Amino acid sequence: MESRRKGSAEKIGDRMKIKKPQISKGDIKIVLIDVIGILIGSVIMAVGMNMFMVPNMLVPGGVSGLSVFLYHIFNLPVGLSIIILNIPIFVAGFLILGFRIVIQSVLGTLLFSIAVEVSAPLLPPATGDLLLAAVYGGVVMGLGVGMVFRYRSSTGGTALLSLILAKTSGISPGQALLWSDLVVLTLAIFVFGSEPAMYAALSLFISIKVIDAILEGLGLSKQAIIITRNGAEINRRLLHELGRGVTKIQGYGGYTGEGREVLLCVVTRQQTGQLKSIIYEVDPEAFIIIGNATEVHGEGFRKMQQH
Questions:
Q1: Are residues 62 and 85 both part of a single domain?
Q2: How far apart, in whole angstroms, are the C-alpha atoms of residue 171 and residue 166?
Q3: Does 275 share its domain with 243?
């Protein structure tokens, strides 16, 4: 009896042991690749800021644009201004969106701010011509931002603010991002004059097109069709981490006849990297189709309007 009790107690103890999460070499490799990609993108953005945007009073939109204002008006360092302006956005994001989404933006913001400050004394203005500065500055900034987005991060600012507004007000992230950039450009008219503001708008337009090219898509939204064996977990993570609704469809393999869950989800282009990461973590063997969604109407996006 005594030995049986000991044996059963040992079995219960083994069951109650909490398994520690194991981090594989593959996970570490993915994180390192992401960090290197974000770092490269941040350095490219810093080049665009210091060689084209800041010297010519061109506002790139968002928090970076506000930092250009503070530099020319109060002579505050651009990198420091970016961090200070992002703090309240990060706090609000942590409370509304959660830790995981915010921490990805924190890394991008810190690397970008440091890169701007470190490279500032080393990079002289490339040109004093506003048109050249707007075109090449837009291309360089777009390359950098596209790299950061591609490696599942952002530089905080209006990109994160747009997700907060989408969560709290129902405005789509694309609309929130557009309006926040328009507000900064409007301020540029009063601070720097209409001509630099118009060139800044041109630069922003070029940046958006370059970002789209880097992310391999021209639409503001992406439609994902996911065929998986673990639809419940993918559905849960997409809802909680991206704030996106999912439609479930029951499907069957044409060859095997086996049942499969088919998930339909629409996300913004900035969320495409996170979407693929979530699917890979849950079901590496899932079949995914991602395409451009030219128009999206409904909850979380634009409301249907009569034409």
A1: yes
A2: 5
A3: yes
Token pair of 60 as six digits: 């790139």
Residue 250 in contact with residue 261, Cβ under 8 Å?
Answer: yes
CA dihedral sign, ordered 22, 23, 27, 31? positive
Is there a domain that residue 53 lies in? yes
* Nearest residue to 45 via CA among 89, 109, 106, 95: 109
Last residue of a domain, one of 172, 195, 214: 214
81-118 pLDDT, tens per residue? 999 998 988 888 888 877 776 877 888 889 899 999 99
First to last CA, the chain: 82
Contact 235, 263 (CB under 8 A): yes
User: Mind giving me the DSSP string for 263-295?
Assistant: EEEEEEGGGHHHHHHHHHHH-TT-EEEEEEES-
Give strand pairing partners of 251: 260
Supply 83's token pair.
């961090």
DSSP annotation of 49 reads: I
CA separation for the pair 158, 64 (Å, rounded): 9
Query: 14-30 burial, b for 16+ CB within 10 Å, e for fewer?
Result: eeeeeeeeeeeeeeeeb
Q: What is the pLDDT of residues 36-50, one digit of tens each?
A: 888 999 999 999 999
Domain edge (last residue) among 199, 214, 229: 214
Strand positions, DSSP E, the chain: 221-228, 246-252, 259-268, 287-293
Question: What is the reported pTM?
Answer: 0.65
Strand partners, 259: 252
CB 277 within 8 A of CB 267: no
Chain CA centroid to CA 251, Å = 31
Task: Write the DSSP string, 219-245.
Answer: SSEEEEEEEES-HHHHHHHIIIII---
Helices (H) and strands (E) in the chain, counts: 11, 4
Do 67 and 158 fall into the same domain?
Answer: yes
